[in-house]
Every structure is written in structure tokens, then in C-alpha cells.
Amino acid sequence: MKLNNLKPAEGSTHSRRRIGRGPGSGLGGTATRGHKGAKARSGYKRKIGFEGGQMPLQRRVPKAGFKNINHREFQAVNVDTLQALAEAKNLTKVTVNDLMEAGLVNGKLGVKILGNGSLTAKLDVEANAFSKSAEEAIKAVGGTATIVK
């Protein structure tokens, strides 16, 4: 047995159907495309969303809303979480990097401090945004709330 003698097993391969190559092939004439109409022509391509001439869904449904290009998304961290972090790591200044190291936020979105919970430690907090209640809670215990970009 040599490489040039190898053949596939009997009946395991089939020759492809050569459509539209004359009447002798049995697949001439309309070449399996039926009669007339756009689908019988070369270059036919149905439009995305085409529903057979019925008004398509994307045109039946009214337009609504818009996408604000200036929208910024934030990850929320409450002041009670800052309190727990400060106690655990003996911090007086909490930055975005400290929150990332603690696994509270990822670095992809901004960080917004919210006022849920209570704060007793005097902290200097740096974040991308603060709610009014969070800023008041931080300043009430003598800390500072600094916005960083």
C-alpha cells in the first residue's frame, strides 16, 4: 500500500450537484429557482427586516427616547462601607485606588459615594462624585470630600 493507492471507502464521497449546466444534468432550466420573481434573478438579496411587503416592525413601532452622549456611569459606594474599610485598614484618606484594592470597585467606571449608613471616622475621601447626603455626612465628622476627574 502506498499513498498514491489510497482511495476513500466505497460510497463515502459524493460529487456536488452542478446546478444550471444544461438539460442533460437534470438540473437545467430554472436551476432549482422556481419561476420568475426577484428570487429567481441573480443578485437577489432580501432587505434586513423585510416582511413580504407588510410594514416592517421597525417602521410600525414609533421612535422613542435618545442616547445621552454625556452620560457617565458610576459604581456606588456607601459611607458605611468607607467606615468599615477605614477601620479594617486604619486609613485616614480613602482614594479610588484604595477602593479598587479592597475589591469594592473596578477601574472601568467612575466611583460615586452615597450617604447610606453612618460615618464616625474623620476621613478625607477622593472620588469622582458625591451625593449631597454623603458629602454632608463626611463633612459632619470633620472630613473632606474631594472630587477627582
Structure description:
The chain has 149 residues and is an alpha/beta fold. Helix content is 20%, strand content 15%. It has helices at residues 57-60, 79-89, 96-101, 132-140, and strands at 74-78, 93-94, 110-114, 124-127, 129-130, 144-147. The strands form 2 sheets. A 3-stranded parallel beta sheet has the order 1-3-5. The chain is elongated, with a radius of gyration of 34 Å. The N and C termini lie far apart (75 Å).
Present the secondary structure layout.
Elements: H1 57-60, E1 74-78, H2 79-89, E2 93-94, H3 96-101, E3 110-114, E4 124-127, E5 129-130, H4 132-140, E6 144-147
Parallel strand pairs: 1-3, 2-4, 3-5, 4-6
Q: What keyword list fits this structure?
A:
149 residues; three-stranded parallel beta sheet; 4 helices; alpha/beta
How are the strands of the biggest sheet laid out side by side? 1-3-5
The largest pleated sheet is described as: 3 strands, parallel
Percent strand equals 5-15%
Counting DSSP E segments of at least 2 residues, the number of strands comes to: 6
Beginning-to-end CA distance, first to last residue: 75 Å
What share of the residues lie within helices? 10-25%
Q: What is the string of helix and strand elements?
A: HEHEHEEEHE
Uncertain regions spanning at least 5 consecutive residues: none
Quote the average pLDDT: 94
Indicate the overall shape: elongated
Question: In a nutshell, what does this entry contain?
Answer:
This protein is of the alpha/beta class.
